[in-house]
Amino acid sequence: MDIETIRNYCLKKKGVTEELPFGPDTLVFKVMGKMFATAGLDEVPLRINLKCDPERVPDLRAEYPEHILPGYHMNKKHWNTVLPEGNLPNSLIFGLIDHSYELVVQGLPKKVQAQLNDLEQS
């Protein structure tokens, strides 16, 4: 899976923006101002950081040790670095993006969650 597919998928989610707060080589996706995914635009192979429920982290890393690693420059208990190129199923990648998005939404204050719910779907 390439960066454009990931970018398009993330941007279709409600309340999502993209930014380059860490410089021109790190794309950050936020929902209501909170980060749920990052991608190193200069990384070969492509790497994306995604938030993950700490209870799922060990199983994912054990099942996909070459594609799901501890979060690079992130809290390794709550973030994974995913290498989406190769034989990692697209459905898994999309599912991990969805999971990261949902975790961040669940952590938003109730008022912000209500604002998100009131937004039009992009």
Automatic annotation (TrEMBL):
Check the record and name the SUPFAM superfamilies matching this protein: YjbR-like
Q: Which UniProt keywords apply?
A: DNA-binding
**GO MF term set:** DNA binding
Instruction: Report if keyword DNA-binding is assigned.
Output: yes
Q: Which intervals of the chain form a coiled coil?
A: none
Which Pfam families does this one have? Answer: YjbR
- Listed name of the protein: MmcQ/YjbR family DNA-binding protein
Q: Which organism is it from?
A: Antarcticibacterium flavum
